[in-house]
Design a protein that fits this description.
about 220 residues, alpha+beta, 7-stranded antiparallel β-sheet, binds zinc ion, metal-binding, lyase, Aldolase_II/adducin_N, metal ion binding
């Protein structure tokens, strides 16, 4: 089996995502660059049909140029276009994680940037919510590509909110990208509560310039 270790890791991570409400039955997909030519990627309907409980062989090996399956059991999701937009934007990007993550979706659905409040998420900078484009559409992939090109340049760590839809996270490898998703979700949970505390007059949310550790 090609890229056995990487496909086992990916199958393991998508299970965790589902169990941790980092994606839901409506979708989500994950990919990782494993060579100059190939990515490994979760198959279409992974969430809807299998609740993300997939075997490593169901993780597809896909040729980046032809976007055809090299090995694996299943079909390619249409949302590969969003993943390829990230890989084509920056060769240093080695993994893309897309989820319908519970707490982040509050902000994504409101169409608002997420206040970045926790120390562990400071390295993300501004957590931007992109303009709406329909799920799986080329328009959505183009929206992602345009945002990366115009705002991000060579940044490898990215955390974007997809309006009314979910989140898109990138990094140099899958371990780091999934770590980012966890940090993003915790920050979303905190930010939602913090905004409510502020609004209810329980405690003012202050924006101070702390001496954050952004490297951990
Ligand atoms: Zn989606």
């Amino acid at each position: 089996m090609l890229y056995k270790k990487e496909r086992e890791q990916l199958a393991d991570i998508v299970k965790k995502m589902f169990n941790r409400y980092e994606t839901n039955t409506a979708g989500g997909n994950v990919s990782a660059r494993v060579s100059d030519q190939h990515i490994v990627m979760s198959p279409t309907l992974m969430s809807q049909r299998w609740h993300c409980d997939i075997s490593p062989y169901q993780v597809l090996v896909v040729d980046m140029e032809t976007e055809k399956i090299v090995e694996g059991d299943g079909a390619i999701t249409r949302e590969i276009n969003m993943h390829m937009a990230c890989y084509r934007h920056n060769r240093e990007i080695g993994a893309v994680v897309h989820g319908h993550s519970l707490y982040s979706m509050v902000f994504a659905t409101m169409g608002m940037d997420m206040p970045n409040l926790t120390e562990a998420s400071q390295k993300f900078g501004v957590i931007k919510c992109l303009d709406f484009a329909p799920a799986t559409s080329q328009e959505l992939a183009d929206t992602v590509a345009t945002y990366l090109r115009e705002n991000v340049k060579d940044q490898v760590t990215n955390t974007l909110l997809l309006n009314r839809h979910g989140v898109l996270v990138t990094d140099k490898n899958l371990e780091r990208a999934y770590d980012n998703l966890g940090r993003l979700e915790y920050n979303a949970y905190i930010a939602e509560k913090a905004l409510l505390f502020d609004k209810l007059g329980i405690m003012k949310l202050e924006n101070k310039d702390y001496n954050y550790n952004v490297h951990e």
